[in-house]
From TrEMBL:
Keywords: ATP-binding, Nucleotide-binding. Residues 165-188 are annotated as: Disordered. Pfam families: ABC_tran. The keyword Membrane does not apply. This is ABC transporter domain-containing protein. PANTHER family: SKFA PEPTIDE EXPORT ATP-BINDING PROTEIN SKFE. The lineage of its organism: Eukaryota, Viridiplantae, Streptophyta, Embryophyta, Tracheophyta.
Amino acid sequence: MVEGGNDPPSSNSIVIRTMNFAYPGQPPLFANFNLHVAPGSRCLLVGANGSGKTSLLKILAGKHMVGGRDVVQVLLLDEVTVDLDVVARMDLLDFLKEECEQRGSTIVYATHIFDGLETWATHLAYIQDGELKRTEKLSELHELKSCANLLSVVESWLRSEAKTEKKKPANTIAQPKKSSPFDASPFRSSRHIAYYR
């Protein structure tokens, strides 16, 4: 269910209405995409690799411009706890929860690590191939009542998704791959880890 309405959004909410976005030379990633994240929410952004989570965060952060948009006061997190140990991860999540509750700020957190998030998150948005499949309050997620944890719920969605045929791009223009002498190296850096020489 995509939340919406005609009420003007507060400065701490996120409202996307009928957004369209495509990378150059690619088919649309988002077509008529709608999302409403209420102020004060801690919304988990979930989906398989390549579903559009990071692209959506980049659009919200203004790294990809999509027409006119208002500046919103939110915290956008993309896999920020992946390199943290359990104690540091829980301390960071507790700090973010406290800040959210005290200041009424809004957080959108894309992650594949779900340990302990059942009590941290207030909302969940599930993206599949650039399409918003579900968005709802975590407390109203009926699968969570019958599954052991949030990981089990998301795993069942992703396994079901993997069984269905993926969208096949039509007439895409192949982008030349940039080569690097480090392409074959096991020490190639990622967005999470930087290697120093």
